[in-house]
Amino acid sequence: MKTLTDTQYIHALIAEGEHQQQDFKFEISDARKIAKTLSAFSNTDGGRLLIGVKDNGKIAGVRSDEEQYMIEAAARLYCRPEVSYSTQTYQVEGRSVLLVQIDESDRKPVYAKDEAGKYLAYLRIKDENILATPVHLCIWQQSESPQGELMEYTEREQLLLDLLEQNDRLSLNRYCRLARLSRRAAEHLLAKLIRYDIVEPVFEGHKFHFKPRLFHLSLDKGT
């Protein structure tokens, strides 16, 4: 199999466009902003940054070693826990393109420190970094429990499934109102059913909704 040149490889990546596992950055001027992307990739499926590439895919090139320092600061100083990453520089059309590879973390959530000093966790959805909801934080917290945990199926679980079937999908606020549950209880229950693949979160209209997976009906019928 023929080995791709640097130019061919980078152009092949650029042809994919920005997506859930790839982001273009013309330059990095703020380590805190890039920390948000590192958090999102780490909390989702991992991904790569192509630095020195404009949003339209044009190659501008990395102008100094400052980009490397910014990435290191973002990963080590502005992410909690620290993000592991690797970098490689490619020469394309007489310019340098820095590729930063971030793996999915096994220590979720990974938080990023914002301008106010607050630590927030993000998810990568399509080509956007989206703030993780309390439900996602609850999923990660529950995932730290020992394996082999038994799920208790009560009237609350049945009510949630009934409401989802009647409404197709629900926002967290609407679920709280209809079920007359506190936000904390609703977040905990949604997280539990998402972990067991009974409910799935859907991001629509810049907001998370929750809907049942197709096979949840077997629970209703006791099969």
Summarize the structure in short:
The protein is of the alpha+beta class and 223 residues long. It is built from eight helices and ten strands.
Label this structure with key terms.
disordered C terminus; alpha+beta; four-stranded antiparallel beta sheet; single chain; 37% helix; 223 residues; four-stranded mixed beta sheet
Protein model, in words:
The longest helix has 13 residues, at 31-43. The chain has helices at residues 6-16, 31-43, 66-76, 134-143, 155-167, 172-179, 183-195, 217-220, and strands at 22-25, 47-51, 79-80, 85-92, 95-102, 111-113, 119-125, 128-131, 199-204, 207-212. The protein has 223 residues and is of the alpha+beta class. 37% of the residues lie in helices and 24% in strands. It has a four-stranded mixed sheet, sandwiched between helices. It has a four-stranded antiparallel sheet with strand order 3-6-7-8. It has a two-stranded antiparallel ribbon with strand order 9-10. Mean pLDDT is 90; it is low at 216-223. A hairpin with a 2-residue loop joins strand 4 (85-92) and strand 5.
Number of helices, where a helix is a run of at least 4 consecutive DSSP H or I residues: 8
Task: State the shape.
Answer: elongated
Largest sheet: 4 strands, mixed
Q: Helical residue percent?
A: 25-40%
Strand portion, in percent?
15-25%
Euclidean distance between termini CA atoms: 51 Å
By secondary-structure content and strand pairing, the structural class works out as alpha+beta
What's the count of strands? 10
- Written as H for each helix and E for each strand, in order along the chain, the element string is HEHEHEEEEEEHHHHEEH
Q: What is the arithmetic mean of pLDDT? A: 90
Evaluate the radius of gyration: 21 Å
Read across the widest sheet, the strand sequence of neighbours is 1-2-5-4
- Can you tell me the residue ranges where pLDDT is under 50 for at least 5 consecutive residues? 216-223
